[in-house]
Amino acid sequence: MDKQKIIKIIFIILSVVLFLFLLISSIKKAIIEVSKKANATVQVFASNRAQMIFNEDVFRSYRLCKKREKTNKKINDYIKYCGTILNEVSIPDEGYLTNISHKFYHYNWRSANFSNKYGRVVYIMNDKDKYLKSGQCFLMLANRFGIAIFKSFLLSVLFYFALILIKKLFTTVLKTTRIKIICGGLILMFLCWYYAYQYNMITGGSGDSLALLNGGLSLVGDIPVILKIMITILASLIVYKEYKICKYGLWTIGFVIIAFIFNPLIPVIPFLSVVGITRVVNTLCEIFFFIYLVKEYKSFNA
User: Fold this and answer.
1) What is the pLDDT of residues 119-157, one digit of tens each?
2) Would you state the pLDDT for residue 211?
3) Which residues on adjacent β-strands are paired with residue 97?
4) Higher confidence at residue 210 or residue 292?
5) Closest C-alpha among 228, 231, 256, 230 to residue 242
6) Where residue 265 falls among pLDDT bands split at 50, 70, 90?
7) Are 64 and 189 in contact (CB under 8 A)?
8) Tens digits of per-residue pLDDT, 55-112?
9) Each residue of 145-180: b (16+ CB within 10 Å) or e?
10) Do 27 and 148 meet the contact criterion of CB atoms below 8 Å apart?
11) Sign of CA dihedral 209, 212, 218, 223
């Protein structure tokens, strides 16, 4: 097996690993989103039985707290101290219970019932209650699964083509000492931004934490700064390559625009978010990038 085939196999393995990682992450996110939406739409009819069920554990916990803290000398007013538990009490409002405690009761959208913190089912949804049926939830979940598979596959394919393109760029561009120094500087800049980003994440992204060039531009935002730097560096390398071939061609101008949009210094993405065209711009850049990678892959094989 020659060197080129070994490199391709490594690239394929990395792409498969990326696909599995993105797919698992997307599936976990989809399950959490469907669960949150199912919980947000639940409205329990405020019958006497429902009020007794959803307040029984709350009042029991309140009574146990008073009994336990009554002899606690560190607490001056044990009734006031335990009174915060009563904030979990469910109250009828317009015929339905509000403020059903997530601390004491858990809603299972798959079986459409509530269970207490010990796992015992205490309430089963009926026709008077308002909630998303399990079939609707599974349909939403299947829709998100399909989107997750498609996006993960598309990104892994793009990643594979990008690896091949980067390999070709490095073999064709890194010929002179000057270019090697420039690439080394770009890598050093990338590492500096990365550690700055890590510092900002550790400090919680507060106003007193590190910002880009002290310009008030937080490193935590809509798109991770590491991803912005990677896109900017890759687009700059492509611009350099295309400029040497055809000066001011379509690919040169296109990747100059991409490098400008995703650069971490000028806040272009936040401005696009305000205007409301971030998703459109991201999609157009992805399509442009994909077409270029396919073109380069075909010319590389030829």
Assistant:
1) 788 888 888 888 888 888 888 889 988 888 888 888 888
2) 36
3) 92
4) 292
5) 256
6) confident
7) no
8) 888 888 888 887 777 777 777 777 777 877 877 788 787 788 877 877 788 888 888 8
9) beebeeebeebbbbbbbbbbbeeebeeebeeeeeee
10) yes
11) negative
The token duo for 180 is 């090697």
Residues in the chain: 302
Q: Count the Cβ atoms, other than its own, within 10 Å of residue 34.
A: 20
Q: Are 79 and 66 in contact (CB under 8 A)?
A: yes
Count of beta carbons in the 10 Å neighbourhood of residue 252: 19
Sequence-separated contacts (24+) of 237-243 with Cβ below 8 Å: 237/166, 237/169, 237/173, 238/165, 238/169, 238/292, 240/173, 241/169, 241/172, 241/173
Task: List CB contacts of 105: < 8 A, sequence separation 6 or more.
Answer: 54, 57, 114, 115, 116, 117, 122, 123
Query: Where do we find the tokens 């049926």?
Result: 133
User: Which residue, chain included where needed, has tokens 């698992």?
Assistant: 24
CA-atom Rg of the chain in angstroms: 28
Which tokens in the block code for residue 221? 């935002």
Answer whether residue 214 shows pLDDT above 60.
no
pTM: 0.51
Alpha helices in the chain (DSSP H): 3-40, 48-69, 78-83, 134-173, 177-202, 225-246, 250-261, 268-275, 278-301
| 302/300 Cα distance (integer angstroms) | 5
Is 122 exposed, middle or buried, given 0-12, 13-18 or 19+ CB atoms closer than 10 A? middle
Q: What is the tens place of the pLDDT at every residue in 110-123?
A: 888 888 777 788 88
Tell the burial category of 89 from Cβ atoms under 10 Å away from its Cβ (0-12, 13-18, 19+): middle
Helix axes 225-246, 177-202, angle to 10 degrees: 160
The proportion of the chain whose per-residue pLDDT surpasses 70, expressed as a percent, equals 77
Average confidence (pLDDT) over 29-36? 86
